[in-house]
Amino acid sequence: MKLVRKNIEKDNAGQVTLVPEEPEDMWHTYNLVQVGDSLRASTIRKVQTESSTGSVGSNRVRTTLTLCVEAIDFDSQACQLRVKGTNIQENEYVKMGAYHTIELEPNRQFTLAKKQWDSVVLERIEQACDPAWSADVAAVVMQEGLAHICLVTPSMTLTRAKVEVNIPRKRKGNCSQHDRALERFYEQVVQAIQRHIHFDVVKCILVASPGFVREQFCDYMFQQAVKTDNKLLLENRSKFLQVKQSYPGIVKNGDSFA
């Protein structure tokens, strides 16, 4: 689902403009639209025309209507939502109060207005528009001092966070600065993982690096999880899979992850 515009006032009244992009988005739309809402979208209307000779005919024209929603019907096989209501904004083809049915389908933009948007509905929009909720694979692509947190959707790879920490070189007889900086780097990566990965959606988390960075990081992460009783990480430990990377590389947004 693509969010085009969102305008919610302090009293929670307002409107959002959305574009369903996938079949699943139509199910989200069905759960968003309610009786009493205002729905604005492009539609086809059959109108009568009269020629200069007085003959009457009919044409199908595309127009934009705003309906006060009275009935909603979801056709899952056709992946189409039919919304019936009365026109509340008169135009050259449709009078005020006239009944019409708008058919919503993937890639057709619509604007939905409510007198009161509740938190559950707004959360549904946020989830539907966030690719993270359709990503069942995540990846931590890292090297010493640099890591990218990525989400892998069916169509693309999205970089959701970049962690970069300057790691001083080890000095002979004194590694304290290096070790402290490395620990700070690992801790920031752990925080980014918890912030950007939805563990209830993701089935596998790839941790990729050259050398032994991935092993050292995973050891640190789960040792700290045990010390702090971090149930989120401990309960999802089996989802982490270490992958050897032959050279340092970062996946860019939109790339495939291979």
What does this protein look like?
The chain has 258 residues and is α+β, with helices and mostly antiparallel strands. It has 5 helices and 12 strands. It has a 7-stranded antiparallel sheet with strand order 1-2-7-3-4-5-6. Strands 10-9-8-11-12 form a 5-stranded mixed sheet.
Strand order of the largest sheet: 1-2-7-3-4-5-6
What name does CATH use for the topology of the largest domain? SH3 type barrels
Question: Helix/strand-derived class?
Answer: alpha+beta
The stretches of 5 or more residues where confidence is low (pLDDT under 50) are: 250-258
The CATH architecture assignment of the largest domain turns out to be Roll
Shape: elongated
Radius of gyration from the alpha-carbon trace, in angstroms: 26 Å
Number of helices, where a helix is a run of at least 4 consecutive DSSP H or I residues: 5
| CATH secondary-structure class of the largest domain | Mainly Beta
The portion of residues forming beta strands comes to 35-45%
Q: How many domains would you count in the coordinates?
A: 2
- Number of β-strand runs: 12
What characterizes the major β-sheet?
Answer: 7 strands, antiparallel
Q: Span from first to last CA?
A: 26 Å
Give the helix proportion (percent range).
Answer: 10-25%
CATH superfamily membership of the largest domain: Pelota, domain A
What's the order of the H and E elements?
EEHEEEEEHEEEHEHHE
Oligomer: single chain
Q: Determine the mean pLDDT.
A: 88
